[in-house]
Design goal:
Blueprint lengths: L1 H31 L5 H11 L3 H4 L1 H13 L1 H10 L1 H20 L6 H31 L13 H4 L2 H25 L2 H32 L11 H22 L3 H23 L2 E3 L9 E2 L7 H28 L12
Antiparallel strand pairs: 1-2
Length: 338
């Protein structure tokens, strides 16, 4: 049982890490759709150029951890969300290719096409991440064997789509703070204004979604008020939300970005607390849901993978810290830039 809980926590940490790191990538891409100036477009791409691929390592690691520790969950989610995952994969491929291709041909039409691909390749994953989380929160239809019993349109229910919009707003706010931190002059000033507007819109929408969740995802609220971690996350979440506008106005973008990251981590943490010990609740029959016991690998597998994780996760964290420290500071364009 101890290892099952450890792996539940580890998967949640990896999801939170991915949402924080690739989240601002997505936000930058969404903002890129509305950027007109060519120099600013190049700064958008170069702001994430050194780090975007490392950020996606967290997605691969999370998928690998899910496959190793909870194979039934991996099988159910990846089969049930198959079309959505294919859309995600195509979007991520186009996003990666667009950064490399847009400057290869000196043609406005060529650059316009790849700029659009970069933006849509960022917008779709931002929405799909929230849609996936919304479905997990409310539960998905599972048969007696724990297999997905719905279809693609089952996943596009109003609540999950609303959570998808919420994640888009969150990542756009996160990305605008990051761009304000990485740019100067007029672009920085525009990002400040956008970040403040996105904060207001996100705060209002998050309040509405939270109220909706009380009625739509009642299973998430069972027992959470007796868990001390619930109050820790709530306090940190509120502290982050209320500091962000102050940090933006005072141009303390690094701290604002840190608190924006804390907000994302706390949102994932609150979902994890509400779900525990469930991993994939069933919306049709609660008994057919997948939890950390009936969906886990053998104890030996969990132990072996835990030892590997103790070695691998610090390497991933260390690499991430090194890359961000190496490329800190404002974006400067030169002949080697995108």
């Amino acid at each position: 049982m101890f290892l099952n809980v450890v792996w539940f926590i580890l998967v949640a940490v990896l999801i939170a890490g991915y949402a924080i790191l690739d989240g601002f990538d997505f936000g930058v891409g969404v903002l890129h759709l509305f950027t007109k100036d060519e120099t600013e477009k190049r700064k958008n791409i170069n702001s994430i150029g050194p780090v975007w691929d490392g950020n996606e390592v967290w997605l691969l690691t999370g998928g690998g951890a899910l496959f190793a520790a909870f194979p039934r969950v991996y099988a159910t989610v990846f089969s049930g969300f198959y079309l959505a995952l294919m859309l995600l994969l195509v979007a991520l491929i186009f996003r990666a290719v667009s950064m490399e291709f847009r400057s290869k041909v000196d043609s406005p039409g060529w650059r316009k096409f790849w700029d659009f691909a970069f933006g849509i390749g960022s917008l779709l994953p931002a929405v799909l991440f929230g849609v996936a989380m919304g479905n997990i929160m409310r539960g998905i239809p599972l048969d007696a064997d724990g297999n997905f019993a719905g279809n693609f349109f089952t996943l596009l229910n109003p609540y999950s789509v609303a959570v998808g919009v919420l994640s888009l707003l969150l990542f756009t706010m996160h990305g605008s703070i990051y761009l304000a931190m990485k740019t100067e002059g007029g672009q920085k000033e525009r990002m400040k204004k956008i970040a403040l507007r996105m904060w207001i819109i996100f705060l209002v929408f998050y309040s509405l979604i939270t109220l909706w969740s009380v009625f739509e995802t009642k299973n998430l609220f069972l027992g959470v008020f007796t868990n001390p971690l619930f109050y820790v996350f709530v306090v940190l979440l509120l502290a982050g939300l209320f500091y962000i506008p102050s940090g933006i106005k005072n141009e303390k973008f690094g701290k604002a970005f840190l608190f924006s990251s804390i907000v994302i981590a706390c949102m994932v943490g609150l979902i994890a607390i509400g779900l525990f010990p469930m991993l994939v609740p069933s919306s049709t029959n609660p008994a057919s849901g997948l939890n950390i016991i009936n969906a886990s690998s053998t104890e030996r597998t969990l132990l072996t993978m835990f030892i590997i994780a103790l070695i691998g996760v610090p390497i991933v964290i260390g690499y991430t810290i090194f890359i961000y420290s190496r490329f800190k500071g404002k974006v400067e364009l030169d002949e080697n830039s995108y």
